[in-house]
Design a protein that fits this description.
- The strands form 3 sheets. The protein has a 7-stranded mixed beta sheet with strand order 2-8-7-6-5-3-4, sandwiched between helices.
- The radius of gyration is 21 Å and the shape is globular.
- 42% of the residues lie in helices and 16% in strands.
- It is α/β, with parallel strands linked by helices.
- It folds into 2 domains: 99 residues, Aspartate Aminotransferase, domain 1; 233 residues, Aspartate Aminotransferase, domain 2 (3-Layer(aba) Sandwich).
- A hairpin with a 2-residue loop joins strand 12 and strand 13.
- It binds ligand TLP.
């Protein structure tokens, strides 16, 4: 019998559940640009309530949510403080500079976590030569650092620094619920120091499309105009929001399984000769490791695993990322550990 494919390339590859498909089929919809889609409104209200913010905006993707946030907080020529490995800096096609005319101020973090002192020092004093600092961005969990989370006291400290300087904070919380579970906190606690938050429905929560941007009413009003400007005003989009409602109601708590599976996967391969994996970085549902062996390279390991029906993602010349999600169970984790062990031992 053909073995089933295990897809660990990303949690974006999750298939929508039957309940989502059913909810989409039955969704009551209207024209959301006219403010007449009840299903979108319900999703936005649910999300705002859950994250402890006044209002929310349904957007097509995490990238759009982040970019609308940057555009709404900042003016052209502003500088945005962010961690050097973050998604906004590395994986959004330079949108901040192309679309909003912003300059990034990348800082080196520790496991992707910004040091509050570094943030404070990076805020520009008024000077005719300098760009104006316009925003501080945080990413929780931090994707490229391996799914690491911000200790609450660090977020709080950066929050104090930002308020003192009169600067807003945007939180890229694409996987905020994985982070909240790891920290044993509510997502709203992780978001309390942020003026805006983006989280994704289409990653571990398994909805087919969509993210939410949250903030106060005035911010979301302006963000809605900017979303429209970018062509992101959608019409009978309650069809998609319906799946998002199921995602928020039914898919959040089970993310603890994904975090636990990532831990098991990491522990299962960390000791293999030729594999370098920092277990301290494995805090949520992401496992990143490098391959340094005369017998096997990272690209060859990716190919070998693919030939056995296990898909993993090569993220640099010698490192690989695996992301656990609802379509990967403990048995799949065991099969993956076995396959990596065998291939590295050849
Ligand atoms: N991340 C994707 C890729 O773009 C790398 C993935 O497979 O992990 N913020 C963070 C922290 C993200 O990880 C992502 C997506 C986004 C924003 C953007 O979301 P989308 O893909 O919906 O634009």
């Amino acid at each position: 019998m053909e073995k089933r494919v295990i897809d660990l390339r990303s949690d974006t590859l999750t298939q929508p559940t039957e309940e989502m498909r059913e909810a989409m089929r039955n969704a009551v919809v209207g024209d959301d640009v006219w403010g007449e889609d009840p299903t979108v409104k319900r999703l936005e209200e649910m999300a705002a309530e859950r994250l402890g913010k006044e209002a929310a905006l349904f957007v097509a993707s995490g990238t759009m949510g982040n970019q609308v946030a940057l555009m709404t907080h900042c003016s052209r020529g502003d500088e945005v403080i962010m961690e050097e490995g973050c998604h906004i800096y590395n994986y959004e096609v330079a949108a901040a500079s192309v679309i909003s005319g912003l300059q990034a101020r990348p800082l080196k973090g520790n496991y992707g976590i910004l040091d509050p002192g570094d943030v404070k020092r990076a805020i520009r004093p008024p000077d005719i030569h300098h760009p104006r600092t316009g925003l501080i961005c945080l990413e929780n969990s931090h994707n490229r650092a391996g799914g690491t989370v911000y200790p609450l006291e660090v977020t709080r400290e950066i929050g104090r620094i930002a308020r003192e300087a009169g600067l807003p904070i945007h939180l890229d919380g694409a996987r905020i619920f994985n982070a909240a579970i790891a920290l044993v906190l509510e997502a709203r606690e992780l978001a309390q120091d942020a003026d805006s938050v983006m989280f994704c429905l289409s990653k571990g929560l398994a909805a087919p499309v969509g993210s939410l941007l949250l903030g106060n009413r005035d911010f979301i009003y302006r963000a809605r105009r900017n979303r429209k400007m970018l062509g992101g005003g959608m019409r009978q989009v309650g069809i998609l929001a319906a799946a998002g409602i199921v995602a928020l109601e039914k898919m959040v708590d089970r993310l603890s399984e994904d975090n636990a599976n990532a831990r098991a996967l990491a522990e299962g391969i960390a000791h293999i000769p030729g594999i370098h994996l920092d277990l301290q970085a494995v805090q949520t549902n992401i496992v990143i490791f490098s391959v340094q062996s005369p017998k096997m390279s990272a690209p060859s390991l990716v190919k070998e695993l693919a030939s056995e029906g296990i898909k993993v993602h090569l993220i640099s010349a010698n490192s690989i990322r695996m992301v656990t999600h609802k379509d990967v169970d403990r048995e799949d984790v065991e099969r993956t550990i076995e396959a990596i062990t065998t291939n590295m031992g050849r």
